[in-house]
């Protein structure tokens, strides 16, 4: 079954399905960059930020999740004044 078919039955079910399917993958991608605790926080915030997209067809959910998460990490680093980060390393 394609990711798109899985994501559109209803917003709550879609978000739950996305979380079950990709939260572990996303957390692993982030832990090497920001540490375990912050990665868990970013994963949760990523799913909260994803809700507006659930009304649309999401063709590449992993790409969307990673982009939202990396944007959150970048925004937090900017807020803290941590200097530039190389987003390519996080991918």
From TrEMBL:
Q: Which residues form the RNA polymerase sigma-70 region domain?
A: 18-80
Q: Which GO terms are recorded in the biological process aspect for this UniProt protein? A: DNA-templated transcription initiation
The signal peptide, as residue positions, is none
Cross-referenced Pfam families: Sigma70_r2
Coiled-coil annotation: which residues? none
Q: Which domain of life is it from?
A: Bacteria
- GO MF assignments: DNA-binding transcription factor activity
InterPro entries named among the record's database cross-references: RNA_pol_sigma70_r2 (IPR007627), RNA_pol_sigma_r2 (IPR013325)
Name the chain's protein: RNA polymerase sigma factor
> Lineage, please?
Bacteria, Pseudomonadati, Pseudomonadota, Alphaproteobacteria, Caulobacterales
